[in-house]
Specification:
With 145 residues, this protein is mainly α. The protein contains five helices and no strands.
Length: 145
C-alpha cells in the first residue's frame, strides 16, 4: 500500500485529534458520558487506524506486544490497588472517602484513578487482540482490492 499517499496524509491528520479526544473522554468521564472503557477503545482505534495504513509490523515497532501485556496488567493493578489502598485506610474496598479530607474530592480522585486504570487496561487489551488477529490474517495484494 505504498501508493496510497492520500490515505496516509489523512491518517496523519486524524490520529492526533483521535488521541486528544480519547484523553478528553478519559478525564471528563466522571462529569459526562464516557470514562475509562470508552477512552480505551477510542485511544486504541488511533493505533488501529495507523496499523491499517502502515501494516501490523509498523504498529508492533511502535507498541511492542510485551509492552501491551505489561500495560494491561498495570491497569488492573491501578484499579485493584485503589481498592486495597482504601481498605488499608480503614474503609471498604473502593470506598473512596479515605482518599481525601472532603468527601466530594475523595470521590473525584477515586473515580479518576480507577477510570485511568480501566482505560489503560482496555486500550492495551484492544490493541493486543487486534495484533493477535491481524498477525494471523492472510495479507491481500493490491490486485485483490
Amino acid at each position: 500500500m505504498e501508493h496510497h499517499s492520500i490515505l496516509r496524509v489523512v491518517s496523519k491528520l486524524l490520529i492526533p485529534p483521535i488521541l486528544v479526544y480519547a484523553l478528553y473522554v478519559q478525564f471528563h468521564g466522571d462529569y459526562s458520558p464516557g470514562g475509562g472503557f470508552q477512552a480505551g477503545v477510542v485511544f486504541s482505534s488511533a493505533f488501529i487506524l495507523y496499523s491499517l495504513l502502515h501494516g501490523i509490523d509498523a504498529l508492533t515497532k511502535i507498541v511492542p506486544p510485551r509492552l501491551l501485556h505489561v500495560c494491561a496488567a498495570l491497569g488492573v493493578l491501578i484499579y485493584a490497588g485503589t481498592g486495597f489502598a482504601t481498605m488499608l485506610l480503614g474503609e471498604p474496598f473502593l470506598s473512596y472517602y479515605a482518599l481525601a479530607e472532603h468527601p466530594q474530592h475523595a470521590q473525584e480522585w477515586g473515580i479518576l484513578i480507577v477510570e485511568f486504570g480501566v482505560g489503560v487496561t482496555v486500550a492495551s487489551v484492544m490493541l493486543s487482540l487486534f495484533i493477535a488477529v491481524a498477525s494471523h490474517t492472510p495479507k491481500l495484494d493490491d490486485k485483490d482490492w
